[in-house]
Amino acid sequence: MPLDLVQKLEILADAAKYDASCASSGGPKRDSRRGGLGSTTGAGICHAHTPDGRCVSLLKILLTNFCRYDCAYCVSRRSSNVARAKFSVDEVVRLTLDLYRRNCIEGLFLSSGIALSEDDTMAELVRVAKTLRTVHGFRGYIHLKTIPGAAEALVAEAGRWADRLSLNVELPSERSLATYAPEKDATSIRKGLATTRSLIDGAADARRRGSGTIGRAPPPRFAPAGQSTQMIVGADGADDLAVLSASTSLYASYGLRRVYYAAFSPTGHPSAGLPQAATPLLREHRLYQADWLMRFYGFALPDLAAAAPSGMLDTAIDPKLAWALAHRDRFPVDVNTAPREMLLRVPGLGPRAVDRVLAARRRSGALRLVDLARLSGGLKRTRPFVVTADWRPTAMLDDAHLRRRLAPAPVQLSLF
Amino acid sequence: MYAVRLPGDADEAAFRAAARRCLALRLAPADVAFAEESAPSLFPPLPDTDATAPAVSAPRAYQALLADAIGHSAADRFDLLYDLLWRIVSGARDVVANPADPVVARLSDYARAVRRDIHKMHAFLRFRPREVDGRPVHVAWYEPQHRVLKQAAPFFVDRFAAMDWLIATPAGTAAWSEGRLAFGPPAARPADADDPVLDALWTTYYRTTFDPARLRLAAMRREMPRNFWANMPETREIPAMVATAGRRVAAMKARAPDVPPGFADKIAARASPGPDGPATPLEALRGEVAACRRCPLHGPATQAVCGEGPRDAAIVFVDEQPGDQEDLSGRPFVGPAGQLFDRALAEAGIDRGGVYLTNAVKHFKYEPRGRRRIHGKPDPGEVRACRWWLDRELAALSPRLVVALGGTAAGALAGRAVSVLRERGPARFGARAGFVTVHPSFLLRLPEAARQADEYRAFVADLQAVKAAARAAAA
To answer: Among A250, A253, A254, which would you mutate to test the B interface (most chain B Cβ atoms within 10 Å of its Cβ)?
Structure first.
């Protein structure tokens, strides 16, 4: 008996859910006032949140979960006993439009198992995006997976219709990939990222050069929301610093908007040689915090190495606090005089709080502790590391128990 | 003390009018209490006056704060806005820019809450298609926390301009029909029409995309508070999803590894065919270099970059290592230094298609710095490890002349440290006739334009000498 649409959706959404990315941000602004359907605001919208705390922004599905590869960590590997299904191009298009008109989603995130060849798979993904854009005038968000090894011409077309492209490096090291995905080739994955980056740069250059030309349409955009990738954390033996070192290279090399870290999670279809237990979500959370520190707080990899001498980030406290505790000689920081870079190193002060501190100290004279409380989110973590007009931490910084006092009480992260 | 009564949905204009009357009467914030009409007040209303308000031009930051905060449901929003306006009129024009000011901080919180409420409305509202007077209309019932309908509506126009839709809230309705947006009085909550897309497909998707091994209820509630759930059909699934999560995870853990399905072997056999025909020695070498793990440089690089050019090329140019562009494209001499090299080559009258271009080190060595890669100089160990490939590459070719571009390439070819400054010009690399010149990126790095031009001319002269030497070797 053929599967109905609900059954297919169940199979192909389940297979897609291990991709952490659900971002619908970073694209250009579009609307439907002059025709078509849909809009993008540039900021992204989470239309619902599931009990795992993740947001639902895009319809995230596979075109098919038939796959000829046998990657141990993947639920769709050919040796897995999972139920299989395949959507037609029209089914995906209709599903996307139906859900979009009800305001359930920002758009589509489409990936696929590789049932036939790399090129066939990539061409099908492109066909869905092209149909949405050209037949239905769809102005919403489209995120497509690029298939490593697919022809460059197909990737180039994917970027023409999609807002974002992504290609997962899957594991932090080539050796892990060889162990768990022996038929996959780390070089071909990296070449895929490199191709997309070159196409993005090339299109941006062409638009810059073409912007002065009068009477000629600007060259087409290419994946205006950039590309991203994902690493599974906890399936192999790589420690946090190895993961962060890999993502540092990835950010530098391929102009990635994001590196996603996905804590390894059992799929219900275990393969021999992989852990059966889920990686603690706290590990994933600390990696994201460290990633943020490197991208928005001016931290470099060696700073994080200093905060994680064992190679693993401290799970009890956030990496910024860990860095501060390991560098007490750099504190206290005077919030009334310190430069921006140093304010960003103070535990509890984020970029927004720092901007407010800088704005406030230009206007209202010496800041007091109560002002700082209003400008930031609270003082608990901040207090021992700052000097204000009316506050000095005195001996607090030298307190051997400072770490314990600042660490939140251990709580069960997940509530059953 | 006077009372100013404003309707609960007072907008910026209504507030501005009331505030102007208070300013005309020179009423300090302590002398006036704003209240919603529905709330009781003991104070008398404002007396009539002929006095005109001072010309008020509030700074843009105040206008922005007013536009958002006025929609907040807090009773003291008007008082706070007037307090701020009074201080602005009294000379503290800059006060809104001070986030440490308590009133500014409070109003900013209100404004943020209103913006969040607008955002949540854009996110959580669900349309159900219905038929109204024989026309398809998408209908939604939504209960925002603040008065945000007017500010939230344009988003839906942008997104669904081609559909007719109606949004009903307890405080009023917004309707888009035939290209016109109209706001109306509150309407009764419409009954939910059955919709298989929302009730079957969407709820199935919501249930399925959830990972039971990652239960984090607090995170969900923080972003999607319970008061929004009533109008989101998918949330009806939450109790069962949560209740069964533990059992599902336990069952997953207890499962034995899968027995591969029957089609696994068949589908695996569909592997891509190998390359056609036997490979030439250079092609074979290329394949081996791609898999090179002789030193750690392959780790962070994209790919090994092999040489390019005809097998019978008379001249082989050896560069230091691929750069950022070469690493991305897999081809040598395509980056900025490669382009400069092309220009110089053309000026010297050497056909680029007739020469062979390669690198002493085949992987790009770099230091990651944010979103850029800073070129790193390969160390002697890395150069030595890669010499294996360079030797085999040269052996597969039969050049009359090998040109080292820069010290690293010269060192790799000569097997000893070479100073370009001292040994620039004709050289011997073992049994091979060679030539040493500068690396083209050296020219790019020169700070002064005059020196750059001089060095570029010297480089072109070197290339002309290379051309002559190759021709002499042929004779």
So the answer is: A253
